[in-house]
Structure of Protein SDA1:
Amino acid sequence: MVAGLTVASGGRGAERIGDLLALQGRCKRDPEGYENELLLQLRHFDACLSIFLLQPMTAGSNNSAASDPAAAKELADMAMFLAHMTPLYPQHLGKFPMQLLQLLKSHGATIQPTLRRQLTQALVLLRNRKMISLIDALPVFMDLQLGGDRALRKLSYSHVVQDIRRLNIKNKNDPVNKPLQNILFNSLQDEDENKSKRALAVLAELNRRKVWVDERTSNAICNACFHKSSRIMISALRYLLGYDQAVEEEDEDESSDDEDDGKKPGIPAVSKEEIYKAHKKGTNSSKKKKQAKLERVMRSLAKQQRNKSREMDHGSHAPLQHVHDPQNFAEKLFRRLQGCTERFEIKLMMMQVISRAVGLHKLILLNFYPYLQRYIQPHQRDVTQLLAAAVQSCHDDVPPDAVESMIRQLVNQFVHDRARPEVMAVGLNVVREICMRIPLIMTKELLTDLALYKKSREKAVSAAARSIISVYRQVFPALLDKKDRGRGADLAVKPKAFGEKVVAEGISGIELLADGESGNDDDEDNEDDEENNDDQASDDEPVESGEEEGSDVGEDEEMDHDVEAGDSDDAGSSGMEGLEDDSDMEEEEEEEEEDDDDELEKSSKGLRKRKMDCEANQTQEGDAPPVSSQKRQKIKSSEAEEPASTSQSLRQLKKMYASKVEQKAAIEVVSRDGDGILSNEDFQRIRELQAKRAAKAAMAEHGLSKAGKFRQEIAVKLDKHGNLNEKRVNPAHLEARIRKRQEKEERQASVRAGREDRPLFGARTAMKQKKTGGTSNKQKEKSKGMPLAAKRAIIKRTNNRKKMGRRTAEKQFRGKKAWK
């Protein structure tokens, strides 16, 4: 045995080595001096291995060497010892790695579990020392995962993932990655279910860790949805659905880590003035509120910048994003769904993956919407996930006629008076999400019916109905009733026609660069001054070429324009912010709007009637009607023919003129050198100005600054770039947010939780009295004697205050019976 070996090294006295670990340490310290001992151990290992290979197939018998625990332990110890010595003696142990690899490959399924695990550890050690190629070892590691040994399966799996990650830690090692991918792809297409499952697990883990995010890996994972085995298909579907959710959770974890560390995200766009106002101006309670709002703004802006930088650096790594033929993928998976006999959960996963692919790549799969329509019922299990899939599958390239029957089914089943408030809120929220993607699907009659639910007693239902109104205030205000459009609605705004594409002209944000270079950096003070002076300057500025003479319009129309301009300053559509407002406040605003409209109509009719009477008197006296009255009559007749063009106020025309100027500025490229070619510094400046603009809009949204020109952007948070389908629709966001009444114990628990980080309550004077170290300079100044002029002023103020008190007391009405 090894423990009884006695060896003699040249020139040394006899020394008994009773342990392989001691010999291993001596060989590492003096490789040349212990070379003979190594050769002796190598011959002993060859002898033990030959004995083991004589009876490989009778490993279950009691007389075999493989079933002997002592022999198996001796062979495993010798293998581990030689694995440690291979880097020191490559000339003697060059064939040992391939010998060990061949042993596990041929007899890995028949040897004892303990021996197989220790031989695998020796192979892992050789691979870590780079004594064997991963291309040769990967098939063996994949085969070792097929056994029933859980510890061995975990060891092989973790080593494969970590080894491939180390190969690509600095840069992508394509010469090694492609052969490894071919091995895993072949294993994934194998008919053996266990082998395919292990290959899919390795590919999914490498893709999740951003090691293999190329198109080959993504397509291999997506093609696993068509595997013959349902278990492989379910695993692939589950990974495709959980990828976006995992990315969202990572973003939340990053933001929560920043909060836990106490680090505020550095947003250079937030000015120091806003930070100073939040910390220094106002009372203690108002400062706390402003500080909390400022933190929310900074967190949201930091998240936006983080997502934008991640997309610019790496783009999206979702496997569905890199499918070679997404249309074919969706059609094949839909055919399999139609003939699927699995349980409902599997069908739901397939529907979600199909809808995600349709929305992400804007595919046309018209048969998918009638298939979803069968499941749109309130009593359907997991109905919110089904509705989220229906929302994801809608985009602007889908014909509105294909989705019309589905949305009719949705409204008929969910939105009616006998439905529960939760059901109605879910239905209205889904209608809103679909209309944000396909605005042309809504009809005037249906929108009028849905808008009536804004007066519902249930807050969730009224908020959902108001959100639909706020969407169409920005997308298609002409489709709404007059009372729902809001003040200053632009009836010329319409959604794109079906099939219409917007061609980008120029560079986005170039007008900000021009404003920044000219000094007009969208300062809030300038915006307020412009808004206050709009009414004064409206008469002096030429609006159109055909209206050079301002007196031709008439006094009555000028007054109407002035009233409309004054209203548009203070008006702002509720939009998506209305979800958080009280329904009573919104109803009062609408009643005030209706009263204002009625008063305006009455006043304008009265003015017109008085002017017509004056003109009639002039004509009866024999005087010819003035030229201005003739032009006024022509304007009135043209106003009856074309109300949309002539009923616009001067403020709206100025906005149209400003938008045209911005379009021209966007086309004309401005650069620092003046040559029309933007440099990297120019693009960096554009990004900074865009971040500053977004910060100002966010500050105005949270009430930290005046809205100004950002009022319309705050009202409705619609994605103007058409990126709604890039993100996953969370089913929880479609549910109704109805707060149930809490029990007394729950309320007390929430109160105690809110008191944990709160400072002790006490008067400020009492807190100051606890101060040690003498009085402060501020307290000493208070104790100083005032000068004579100051004392006289204080006495005069107190006397005046007493006089005013006596006057008001004499005039105060005390009722029918006065009391003493």
About this structure: The longest helix spans residues 583-620. The chain has a mean pLDDT of 76. The first strand starts at residue 6 and ends at 7.
